[in-house]
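Continuing from the previous page of notes. For each protein in this section, the sequence appears first, followed by its structure tokens. Read the first protein now.
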Amino acid sequence: MNPRPHHQQKPEAHTQNDQPKRVRLQKLLASAGLGSRRNCEEYITAGRVTVDGVVVTELGTSVDPQKQKITCDSEPVKPRSKRYFVFNKPKGVLCTNRDPQGRPRVIDFVGGHESGLFPVGRLDENSEGLLVVTNDGELAQKLAHPRFRVPRTYQVQVAGFPSPEALSQLKKGLYFHEGKFRVQDVSRVKTQGDSTILDVILNEGQNREIRRLFARMGHKVLHLVRTSFGPLRLGKLSSGDLRMLTTAEVRSLREYKPPRQQKPPATERALKGDRERTPITPTPSRKKSTEHLGDDSVPIERKPRTDRSATEKRSATTGKRKTFKPGPFGGRSSSKKPPRR
């Protein structure tokens, strides 16, 4: 076995033409546009793929596309360079790859299935706005998976005027059969006629989540546009237009980490956990009572009760004075000696 060199030159990070040195064979075939990863696995098990002239049928085989010759059905396989786009999805366009009804799809704007491109995440048919389109599966997994909590910002127009209590409830969350839906943040932008425009931020996208949340609160969504996705902004990109991401934008996507939520001050955290305490009202001072005797009212001043000393009490039976001392456990013990037995 050859020893590993001590100094290996690292490839330039975060460029669009980067390819890992060794990749799984089915992943390489899929990135070359030969089909889905499952279809490429069938090509391998059927014996249609060779590496350096040797038929490979074992799934998970790692290859180096830069040094080894890979063929499928005797045709050389060359990995495609990774591409990244931002697309402003119009209303009525689908994010799916197959539609029996023949409606327009996102991939129709980027060259169809042959391009190997696909949208990251989804927007429903009636929603508009920013979509990331790429053939980089690893980056797409990072951007779409809920574990990475990549924020998405939407501008939403709803019917009516949601109350502050309703917006607060959206942050707390509502339960649906898929689980609990909630928004990360929601803020009122302005009112427009009989409707309200709001900015809504989600950390993960469920099926028609925003529409279902506002419908549960009694406000129908009239218009919904995604304006940002992580560090990317829609900007002035027209509806239906596509633009390629710059190298800096691709790097920002790869290195993106959502901002940490700021913790409230220690005093607020302490008060948040405490239950509400009812204020203690001072006891009113004792007033003179009045007894009515016939037509005349004679005020009688009640004498204050003479409180005996805390350490001196008189026995109710014998009348003798008894002194008490604090006991070992906080109680009071009598100084009187116990009777002899």
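Done with the first. The second protein uses the same format. Note its length before scrolling.
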Amino acid sequence: MSGPLSTGTTTARMPASFIGSQRVVPTMPLYASIVVVIVGLAATAVAVPPAEPAGRADGSRAEAAPAALIDPEVFRPVLVPEGSLISRGIRAGESAAYYRVLDHARRVDPETLRRAAARFLAARQKASGRAAVRRLPVEEFPVFVDLYENVRRPEVYLGKPVTLRGHLRKLVEMPAGENPYGIQTLYEAWLFTSDSQQHPTVLVMTSVPPELLEEVRRLKAANRPVLVNGVSGSGYFFKMYGYPAADAYRFAPLVLGGRLEWRPPSPGDLDRSLPVVLAAGMVVFGLPIGWFVWRNRSEDRRRRMQRASETPESFAWESGTEEMQVVENRESDEVVEET
């Protein structure tokens, strides 16, 4: 009986007594296998090229999404010499920053931009001097009012990410103009938030949902005013944008962003909200009416019981009858004497 010990392709035969008294330890095969595996993995890593980023729909290579925040130096040309953010239109000196911010906004991940805006607005809410504002959900923070109150302090909002929600009253599709980023079309949206009253925020976006464009076209074709609820947009505050109004020249916050969002109310939402509206109507109108009816009935019952307590148990009808007979006899005697 013998035991083989492989060394390459040769086999050495050993005495049975040696095999019985010593343990056979494989040496070369184990180490050789490890070396082969390591060399094979290294060769595979060298042979396989790194994966390329996914391409865009137009066939060009997609770049990695940039971070949400933009270098503040990009916005320096926006400031006029006095350091104010208020100016009319887009000036030639700030055109490069205008298109650069738009290109950044369309390439950044929308959810990343929304989270950055939520963090910034939460910090602004925490710094508010009004306790009622600090108690609001961050979605209800009055961005428009806070922005207007700090318009003379450019460091507060210039270039910061913000999210605004409200209803749309104007949407204009326009050519982007010549720019080095290949942006061809821009959309100017006039958004009215709950805290802006009749003052708009102008959002210039690189894309909008096709359904929203169709809705605006439908309203215009029907000669109806454009008013679309459920619209929101995230972007970067750029400046106070001057626009001519009916009575004077006014200024609106200008926000540059990527995609405008629209969440139209679905029929299911309306069906689910109808019972809530009916229940609220019953509470608002039913309770006062029910209280009024209960009060009148209670008052009427109280009056009936009071009259019943004041009525005697019996009446002296006999004496009253005798008096009526005496009166009748007197009237009959007077009639006889006249005749």
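What the second structure shows: Confidence is low (pLDDT under 50) at residues 1-28, 45-61, 311-321. The beta strands are 6-7, 10-11, 86-88, 161-175, 185-192, 201-207, 228-244, 249-259, 261-262. We return to this in next week's lecture.
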